[in-house]
Amino acid sequence: MKKPKDSKKAILELHWNVTLHPLAERELQTIPADMQARFLHIGEMLEEL
Fold first, then answer.
1. What's the mean pLDDT in 19-46?
2. Cβ-count burial of 5 within 10 angstroms (0-12 exposed, 13-18 middle, 19+ buried)?
């Protein structure tokens, strides 16, 4: 297998966009505030990758 001459060509930049299904959003609203905050924080971290 050949290595690429320019390693930048082998790197993919991915951008995450986290959205909630309406049913999941309703369920999220039923869990304690600290768990909601953790869930939302994980989504924010994914979007910042």
1. 95
2. exposed
